[in-house]
Amino acid sequence: MYYKIKTMKLIGVCLIILVVAGTRQLRAQAIVTKTHTASQIIGQMKTHLTCEWSAETVDTFKSGNPDDGITGVAVCMFADMETLQKAVANHCNLIIVHEPTFYNHLDKTDFLADNPVYQKKNEYITKHKLIIFRFHDHWHKTLPDGIYVGMIEKLGWKANQIDSSMLFFKFEEQTVGGFAQKLQEKLKGSQLRIVGDPLMRFTNVALAVGAPGSNTHINLLSGEFTELLVAGEASEWETYEYVLDAATMGMKKAAIFTGHIASEEAGMEYCARWMKTFIQDIPVTYFENGSSFWTVQKPIKQ
After folding, report:
1. What is the pLDDT of residues 115-128, one digit of tens each?
2. What are the two backbone dihedrals, phi and then psi, of residue 95, each rounded to the nearest 5 degrees?
3. pTM of the entire predicted model
């Protein structure tokens, strides 16, 4: 009888061990199956936007297999080689990028087939199985515009907004030159261009991030409100000349161009924070691109 009871206790202990081991194995399997594919992550992003997803858009996969599991997400303005290398070093295989990867708006590559720069970049992307997704149209289209939210936050202009458009701002009266110096401090690394009289005094500012085109710039400047336009970039024969002519005619108009990256990059930093609110089980990392050029005024490291 004694040995029978002892044997039953031993069997009971073994059953408990098996149950515990099985539970741990199921938990491990749950962790493994928690991996998301690129398509699933983009799907989550879509559900958190306020706008409908457009059929015609540049917001598409540019490389890789959307059904691959994701180890990490990199968010940036440009998927240049340096940023891709940082993504790989940080185990990120999904790249959420705001601008084109292959040097043209639609990321067409047929004319680049024999180009050595394109070939080497594409080889690197393929070798590391990088999945690149452009997130441009809908990040601007959602309300509020994600790029403007990030930029206004970085510039500290929220209290200066005059309405909900995120386009118009009112400041204490000051000179264009003095305002540009303060703007340069907030956009470190950018090379500002001032068009018009730097001594012109103003209070009213319009903001146009990125490169919306001269029509948008001129429409903003034509309004009675706008005295100073702060913009990303423009062709010198368009908005630049318009502002120069207006200033020469004695009109109270000026413009400051920050460069495309400087005018939108904070919006992609905000995008990474936004994604983290609904993607908690996969690392989401923001990579700053910074300026893509240097000037002779900037010291060159020997």
Report:
1. 999 999 999 999 99
2. -110, 120
3. 0.86
